[in-house]
Amino acid sequence: MTALLEAYVFCEVKRYDIKGRETLKTLGKFYIADLGLRNCLLGFQDVHMGSTIENVVYLELLRRGYDVAIGKVGSMEVDFIATTATDKRYIQAAESMNEPATRERELAPLRMIRDNYEKVVVARTCDNPVTQDGIKIIRLTDFLLED
């Protein structure tokens, strides 16, 4: 794995405890730097669409110049904490926000964060992309087309 990280095939993302304000030594994640390699190895499968969307959002955050970490708040996970010197955003990535159970699962960790930084859910499909409880819900295509 070290060789793949050094060859920039994978990127390692550390986990950050939001309440404790410290980087954790375990439970980080790895994202592939080129989704074409992933598709070559695994084929084009809709089964893994959620993890693919998460990978796309991660790569886009890097492209925009953010430092990215995975957030932990209580026992829940925030997909990304994206920071620059002047900005901070909490981001969840989801395939769909149409089912009530999925919607609640994605919004719950963001609701637990008590600071005033922007909180966003990026979803591939969402019939009702509106702000809820101060949390923006936006479609993946709109997120990718933002500046």
What is the compact description of this entry?
The protein is built from five helices and seven strands, in the order αββααβββαββα. The protein is of the alpha/beta class and 147 residues long.
Overview of this structure, please?
This protein is α/β, with parallel strands linked by helices and 147 residues long. It has a single domain, classed as 3-Layer(aba) Sandwich (Trna Endonuclease, Chain: A, domain 1).
CATH architectural grouping: 3-Layer(aba) Sandwich
Strand content: 35-45%
Oligomer: single chain
Order of helices and strands: HEEHHEEEHEEH
Could you tell me the number of beta strands? Answer: 7
Radius of gyration: 15 Å
Q: Into how many domains do the coordinates divide?
A: 1
Overall body shape: globular
Number of contiguous helices:
5
Low-confidence stretches: none
Instruction: Assign the structural class, choosing from mainly alpha, mainly beta, alpha/beta, alpha+beta, or little secondary structure.
Output: alpha/beta
Supply database-style keywords:
147 residues, alpha/beta, Trna Endonuclease, Chain: A, domain 1, seven-stranded mixed sheet, 7 strands, 32% helix, globular
Please render the helix and strand layout as text:
Elements: H1 2-6, E1 10-17, E2 22-32, H2 35-42, H3 49-63, E3 67-73, E4 76-83, E5 88-96, H4 100-112, E6 118-125, E7 136-139, H5 140-145
Parallel strand pairs: 1-3, 5-6, 6-7
Antiparallel strand pairs: 1-2, 3-4, 4-5
